[in-house]
Specification:
By secondary structure, the protein is an alpha/beta fold. 36% of the residues lie in helices and 15% in strands. It is built from nine helices and ten strands. Helix 4 crosses helix 5. Bound molecules: phosphoenolpyruvate and manganese (II) ion.
């Protein structure tokens, strides 16, 4: 179902009246983790002002160490929802388990499946039985074929609202957190009709690389970006090193507007 052979035209996904795909570009941004109501509302205001189209924020965090901050859970989701409503931005958040699926269906506009859960087939199948738009991140070491097969798990259950997200893959290089595979963008466009966005934050792990990789992603044909932004990157509870400040972000958006057209 994800294969371009059986559906030649680009898929356009409508989320709260905002279109994604076929030239409709989206800018998803926000902190890695929701840390407090004040934090998320302040960031949301700055992002809205800068021109973001969606607000992201992690409530359930798939951390490498069980001793690292794991996210605020449903309380965090509630804060994200409040912030999104307050500034008028639809929200994106990662789901890790089907226990909280009903809450995600109710509250979240795009449900994110993280890289670590790309092959959680039970989760994918359950999401396939909903109508929610799903942001499916590429697995840490997933081939394009494996990634598209994961999309197929969602689509084969009846939910064709899948947005792919290239977030970097593991290679022998250790300078960057991951190796951002921008060639995945034209490759996916050839293989599939699904929209694909790029995450330059996890793709590089370094905030100073985010602006150039964002522009490169747009030029490569991405349908959007997901960028981590934090009010105080140095004090962030997760992924501070790769997070832009709201000011950095506001400075980046006009450059993107020269390369892509968006609201
Ligand atoms: C995230 O978006 O904060 C995240 C954990 O991403 P990934 O699953 O790509 O590592
Ligand atoms: Mn993160």
């Amino acid at each position: 179902k994800a294969n371009r052979m059986f559906k030649p035209e680009d898929t356009v996904i409508d989320v709260c009246g905002k279109k994604i795909g076929a030239g409709h570009f989206v800018l998803i941004s926000g902190p890695c983790s929701v840390e407090s109501e004040e934090q998320i509302i302040n960031i949301a205001r700055a992002l809205k002002e800068a021109g973001a189209t969606f607000l992201r924020g992690g409530a359930y965090k798939p951390r490498t160490s069980p001793y690292s901050f794991q996210g605020l859970g449903l309380e965090g989701l509630e804060m994200l929802k409040t912030a999104g409503k307050e500034v008028g931005l639809p929200i994106v958040s990662e789901i890790m388990s089907t226990d909280v699926l009903d809450r995600f269906i109710e509250d979240v506009d795009i449900i994110q499946v993280g890289a670590r859960n790309m092959q959680n087939f039970v989760l994918l199948r359950e999401l396939g039985r909903t109508k929610k738009p799903i942001l499916l991140k590429r697995g840490l070491s997933a081939t394009l074929e494996e990634w598209l097969m994961s999309a197929e798990y969602i689509m084969s259950e009846g939910n064709e609202n899948v947005i792919l997200c290239e977030r970097g893959i593991r290679t022998f290089e250790t300078y960057t957190r991951n190796t951002l595979d921008l060639s995945a963008v034209p490759a996916i466009k050839k293989l599939s009709h699904l929209p694909i966005i790029v995450d330059p934050s996890h793709g590089t792990g370094k905030s100073w690389m985010v602006a150039s990789m964002s522009k490169a992603a747009v030029v490569a044909g991405a349908d959007g970006l997901i960028v981590e932004v934090h009010n105080n990157p140095r004090g962030a509870l997760s992924d501070g090193e790769q997070s832009l400040t709201p000011d950095n972000y506001a400075a980046l958006v006009p450059g993107l507007r020269e390369l892509a057209e968006f609201e």
